[in-house]
Amino acid sequence: MSEKTYTILSACGSGVATSSHIAASLTSSLKEMGVSVNVRTCSLGEIDGLVESMHPSIVVATASLETVHNLGEIKVMNGIPLLTGVGRQEMLNEIAEYLKSQ
């Protein structure tokens, strides 16, 4: 039986720099933890449409998601620990545990 792959949206203001760094960090770190993920980078303006089409398990953002209205029960996390390193491992552990519980 194949391992489940979880979808994560990595969002920042422009959908380029910080979201790409976070996506790479999530992909490699979670793989090392035995969790397979597909991380899609996006800008804040793209989240509404991507939530509808991709149905992510988690949205990791480096900016406020106040303008996003359709997150429903999707877990939202602040991505700053993956940029600064402060609280990084704790965040990765929380994400891995959450995904494995799905």
From TrEMBL:
GO terms for molecular function: protein-N(PI)-phosphohistidine-sugar phosphotransferase activity. Residues 8-83 form the Phosphotransferase system EIIB component type 2/3 domain. The keyword Transferase applies. The keyword Zinc-finger does not apply. It comes from the Bacteria. It holds the Pfam family PTS_IIB. This is Phosphotransferase system EIIB component type 2/3 domain-containing protein. It comes from Anaerofustis stercorihominis.
